[in-house]
C-alpha cells in the first residue's frame, strides 16, 4: 500500500491526541496533521504533480516540512529532501539530476496556501515497488548519487524498528534531528507515527531545548555529537534522564569512551545501531539484551548480512528494506550489487558466531562529521581547481565534538583562512575542511597512490 496509508492506519483513534509538541508549548493534533497532509496533497495534484514525479524540498525543519513529506507520499509522488546547508551550485546539480516538477524552498508558505483547499480524500494508490523517496548520498567520484527507496522498503524497515525498539502510544519521542536524511525523516518519524505517539519537535539540537523537553519524553534518537554535547553540560544529570527509557545513537560511530561516560552519568546504556541511506537501518543492539560498546548489534529481522573476504571484510546485505538502485545510474547500481542480489555496503566489519556485528572501518574513505557523510573526492575536486594547489588529499581525523573533522593536506601554496573561506562558498559547512595543511609531498605507495592512512595518523592529534 501507499506508505502514508500504513502510517495513518496507526494514528490514534482519538485524532485530538497530540502528534507534535512544539517548543512554544503548542500541541499539533493528529487530526490537524492529517488535515494538513490531505489539503497539501490536493494542492500538489492541483500543481499537476503526478504519480512518480519528484517533489524536492530544501526548507528549514518545521511542522510544515513534515507535512510536505507526508503529502508527497499521499499524492503518489517521490520525495527528494535536500540538506539546508547545500549551496546554490550543489542544489543546481540535484535539480538537473532529479528533474523535480516542484521545488519547495518554503514549506510554511506552501502548506499555508493548501489550508484553503479542499482535502484529498483517498491517497493515490501505490505498489510496494513504487518509489517513495530519493535520498542523495555523496559519491566517491564527487558526483552525488540518488538512492531510490520504495514504499515497501520504507514500510518494512519502519515496522521492524517499531517492534525492535518497543515503541507504543505511551512513548514521547524527543526529535532534535534534521529531516533531510534517513535518520530524522524515516527512522525517527516513522517509529512515532506508527505508534500514534507524540514527538517533541525541535527545530535543531540545542542543549537547553533538549534538556527542557527531556523530562516529558521517553525516547531520544541522535548522532554521537548530541551525546558528547549533553555530557559536557552539567545540567545533564541522572535525574534529567530518569524519565527516559531509551537513548539511540547512529549515523556515525559512537566512541566507547562516550558509551562508558554516558552509562556512568545516567545509569543507562546507549543503544547503537547501523544504517545507511541505501538500506535505512541494517542492524541494532537489542532493546532487551546486552548492548556492547563498539558493536552495532544484530541484523534486523528479514536482513541477510554476510562478510565478504574472510573473517573481516566488506559487509554485504540483502533484504526487503534495501534500495532499488541509484537514480539514473544503472551502471553504478550494477557495480554495487553481487550476482546473487546482495548490496555491497563498502563498510568493513566482522560478525560474531552469534550474529553480532562490529564495524571496523570504511572501505571508501568516507568521513562522517557530526553525523553527516563527506566523501573526500568531492572536496578534493574543488581544492585542485584553486590557484596555487598542485594536489590535495582530504581525510577525517578524530574530533571530540563531531566524531571526525575534515582536514585537507595540500601540495602547493596558499593562505589557510582564505582557502577555507573560498571552499565554504561552494560547499556545505559540514564538508568544508576545518584545517588546511601545506606540504611539499604526499605519502604514496609503490603504485603512486596517496596513503591516506598515513595522513590520518600524522594529523590525528590536530584537534586533541
From TrEMBL:
Record-annotated AMP-binding enzyme C-terminal domain positions: 378-449
EC number: 6.2.1.-
Pfam families assigned to the protein according to its UniProt record, in alphabetical order: AMP-binding, AMP-binding_C
Residue ranges annotated for the AMP-dependent synthetase/ligase domain, each copy included: 16-327
Keyword Ligase: yes
GO molecular function: ligase activity
Database matches in InterPro entries: AMP-bd_C, AMP-bd_C_sf, AMP-binding_CS, AMP-dep_synth/lig_dom, ANL_N_sf
PROSITE patterns per the UniProt record, alphabetical: AMP_BINDING
Keyword set includes Glycosyltransferase: no
Broad enzyme group: ligase
Coiled coil segments of this chain: none
Annotated keywords: Ligase
PANTHER family, sorted: ACYL-COA SYNTHETASE, ACYL-COA SYNTHETASE FAMILY MEMBER 3
Family label: Belongs to the ATP-dependent AMP-binding enzyme family.
Protein name: Malonyl-CoA/methylmalonyl-CoA synthetase
Amino acid at each position: 500500500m501507499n506508505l502514508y496509508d500504513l502510517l495513518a492506519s496507526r494514528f490514534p483513534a482519538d485524532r485530538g491526541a497530540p502528534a507534535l509538541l512544539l517548543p512554544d508549548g503548542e500541541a499539533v493534533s493528529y487530526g490537524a496533521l492529517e488535515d494538513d497532509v490531505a489539503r497539501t496533497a490536493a494542492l500538489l495534484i492541483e500543481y499537476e504533480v503526478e504519480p512518480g514525479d519528484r517533489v524536492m524540498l530544501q526548507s528549514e525543519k518545521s511542522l510544515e516540512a513534515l507535512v510536505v513529506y507526508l503529502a508527497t507520499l499521499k499524492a503518489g509522488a517521490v520525495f527528494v529532501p535536500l540538506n539546508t546547508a547545500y549551496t546554490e551550485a550543489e542544489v543546481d546539480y540535484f535539480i538537473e539530476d532529479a528533474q523535480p516538477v516542484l521545488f519547495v524552498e518554503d514549506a510554511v508558505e506552501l502548506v499555508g496556501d493548501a489550508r484553503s483547499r479542499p482535502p484529498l480524500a483517498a491517497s493515490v494508490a501505490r505498489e510496494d515497488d513504487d518509489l517513495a523517496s530519493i535520498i542523495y548520498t555523496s559519491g566517491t567520484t564527487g558526483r552525488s548519487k540518488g538512492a531510490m527507496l520504495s514504499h515497501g522498503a520504507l514500510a518494512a524497515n519502519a515496522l521492524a524498528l517499531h517492534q525492535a525498539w518497543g515503541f507504543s502510544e505511551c512513548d514521547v519521542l524527543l526529535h532534535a534531528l534534521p529531516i533531510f536524511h534517513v535518520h530524522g525523516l524515516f527512522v525517527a518519524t516513522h517509529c512515532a507515527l506508527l505508534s500514534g505517539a507524540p514527538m517533541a519537535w525541535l527545530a535543531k539540537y540545542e542543549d537547553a531545548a533538549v534538556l527542557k523537553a527531556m523530562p516529558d519524553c521517553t525516547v531520544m534518537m541522535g548522532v554521537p555529537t548530541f551525546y558528547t554535547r549533553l555530557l559536557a553540560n552539567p545540567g545533564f544529570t541522572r535525574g534529567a534522564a530518569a524519565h527516559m527509557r531509551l537513548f539511540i545513537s547512529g549515523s556515525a560511530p559512537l566512541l566507547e569512551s562516550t558509551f562508558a561516560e554516558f552509562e556512568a552519568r545516567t545509569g543507562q546504556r546507549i543503544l547503537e545501531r547501523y544504517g545507511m541511506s541505501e538500506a535505512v537501518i541494517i542492524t541494532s543492539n537489542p532493546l532487551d539484551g546486552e548492548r556492547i560498546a563498539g558493536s552495532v548489534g544484530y541484523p534486523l529481522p528479514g536482513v541477510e548480512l554476510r562478510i565478504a573476504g574472510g573473517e573481516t571484510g566488506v559487509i554485504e546485505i540483502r533484504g526487503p528494506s534495501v534500495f532499488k538502485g541509484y537514480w539514473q545510474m544503472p551502471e553504478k547500481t550494477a557495480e554495487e550489487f553481487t550476482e546473487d542480489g546482495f548490496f555491497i555496503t563498502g563498510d568493513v566489519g566482522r560478525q560474531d558466531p552469534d550474529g553480532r556485528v562490529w564495524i571496523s572501518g570504511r572501505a571508501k574513505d568516507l568521513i562522517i562529521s557530526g553525523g553527516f557523510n563527506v566523501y573526500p573526492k568531492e572536496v578534493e575536486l574543488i581544492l585542485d581547481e584553486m590557484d596555487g594547489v598542485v594536489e590535495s588529499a582530504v581525510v577525517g581525523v578524530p574530533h571530540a565534538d563531531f566524531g571526525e573533522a575534515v582536514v585537507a593536506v595540500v601540495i602547493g601554496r596558499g593562505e589557510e583562512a582564505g582557502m577555507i573561506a573560498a571552499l565554504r562558498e561552494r560547499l556545505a559547512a559540514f564538508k568544508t575542511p576545518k584545517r588546511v595543511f601545506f606540504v611539499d609531498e604526499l605519502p604514496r605507495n609503490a603504485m603512486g597512490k596517496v596513503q591516506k592512512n598515513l595522513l590520518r595518523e600524522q594529523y590525528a592529534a590536530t584537534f586533541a
